[in-house]
Amino acid sequence: MISINKVVAGYGKQHVLNELSINLESGLIHGLVGLNGSGKSTLLRCICSLMKPISGTILLDEVTVSKRNISLLETEPYFYSGITGREYLWLFKSKAESKFDATAWQELFNIPLDKLIDNYSTGMKKKLAILGMLKTNNQVLLFDEPFNGLDIESSRIFSSVLKKLIASDKTIIITSHVLESLTAICDKIHYLKDGVINQTFDSMNAELIDKALFHELDLQVAKSINQLL
Known about the structure:
A 6-stranded mixed sheet has the order 6-7-8-3-9-10, with helices on both faces. A 4-stranded antiparallel sheet has the order 2-1-4-5, with helices on one face. It has 7 helices and 10 strands. The protein has a single domain (about 1-80, about 140-229), classed as P-loop containing nucleotide triphosphate hydrolases (Rossmann fold, 3-Layer(aba) Sandwich). It has helices spanning about 40-45, 85-90, 100-110, 120-135, 150-165, 180-185, 205-229; strands at about 1-10, 15-25, 30-35, 55-60, 65, 70-75, 140-145, 170-175, 190-195, 195-200. It is globular. The longest helix is centred in the C-terminal third of the chain and has 23 residues, at about 205-229. By secondary structure, the protein is α/β, with parallel strands linked by helices.
């Protein structure tokens, strides 16, 4: 379980997370939704220790989180120029007990591992970055907008992989601007607003999530449109 207790984080004097607290159970896929600037990426960066909170604690099974057992796929993954997909995967350490068959994964996701990443499409790059995450086989996997750039077939394959992973008691957290992509695979969906988790929903309650997330925005937009048209 990831236990987040009164975490405050931000950039300069601007706080993005404001004493955010939540417990994220293992063996589940957690969705994280919120409007732009709500702090989704900031929260993921704090969980994986890429960003240090101003105050508060983040524990994994009652121990301070460490990069050694958490992996993060950022919205725009970085790739070295002049290397192949296979060489990229070599950069990721795999757990001693893990068996990562790059060729088999290549066939599943249809990635040309022996070609230069510089020539990959956006979707191929995203699939390669996902494979790097999977190779680590870490206990906690964080995905920031992983469906961006994926085609329909790859999205379905990726969703099936995630569902299989939680059977081994991993904790998975996913952000997405597309609510439907989360309700299809997540066990819990957490609504981040004003720097805190405003509500947590069962993924089956898509209508409630949509209403909570977009009700105020819809009212503001309707008012603006009425003034303009």
